[in-house]
Amino acid sequence: MMKSLRLAMLAIVALLAGCAGPQRNVDYTAFRESKPASILVLPPLNTSVDVAASAAVLSQATLPLAESGYYVVPVAVMEETFRQNGLTTPDDIHALPASRLREIFGADAALYMTVKEYGASYKVISSNVTVSIDATLLDLRSGAKLWDGHQTLAQASNSSGGLIGMLVQAVVDQVVNTLSDRSYGVAGMTSNALLSAGTQGGILYGPRSPRYAGQ
Q: Secondary structure of the chain: what % helix, strand, coil (to 5)?
């Protein structure tokens, strides 16, 4: 059921994203040599204007990694461990040495993310919800970068009925976007597109996936 839901979400992402940008060549040499089996997802840095962005992305980042074949340190365990050690902000957590994170959590790799955009924007005759995330996977044993990626997903409102109708609809959509937090749903689809294995330029399958040996 969960796998079917993830595939459906990825299909929606493809529709919402529109035309893809140019494909990039990714060097997976370090990734294949490292063979990480476990991943620690760190609280994302947030450079957007919405204070809810980091928590929204973090809460939906572990599922695609787990379904790609990795053991993912539970978010609650990660957050409580940092809190017990007086670390409560993403900036302080990201500043920790890789060796220290390895010592504390025993994970093979850590995922560092930055939320660049998150939320709805009103553009006169349209209201768009945009989520943009940068991600880097770092080997906690060697400190080497294994992979990095970027994903931006924009969901635009559908306005019709002449200029007045489009203006009214854009305002209504902006209010609905704010009250219903559509950004959270778009963040989930963005995380799936960015962190699911088997995508162009995406991460490799982990050892818990049946596709692990064939990559």
A: 45, 20, 35
* Nearest in space to 78 (alpha carbons), one of 105, 57, 96: 105
Q: What is the dihedral sign for C-alpha 27, 30, 33, 36? A: negative
Q: What percent of the chain has pLDDT over 70?
A: 73
Rounded to two decimals, the pTM is 0.80
Please write the tens of the pLDDT for every residue from 82-138: 999 999 999 999 999 999 999 999 999 999 999 999 987 655 445 678 999 999 999
Which ranges of 132-181 would DSSP assign to H, the alpha helix? 162-180
Map out the domains of the chain as residue ranges: 24-201
Residue 198 amino acid letter:
G
Rounded to whole angstroms, how far apart are CA atoms 40 and 130?
Answer: 26
Contact 19, 64 (CB under 8 A): no
pLDDT at residue 182, rounded to an integer:
80
Residue 31 CB neighbours (<10 A) = 20
Element (H or E) spanning 72, and its range?
A: strand 71-72
Check whether domain 24-201 has CATH 3.40.50.10610, yes or no = yes
Who's near 77: CB < 8 A, 6+ residues apart?
Answer: none
pLDDT in tens, 129-152: 899 999 999 999 999 999 999 999
CA dist., res. 134 & res. 184, Å (int): 17
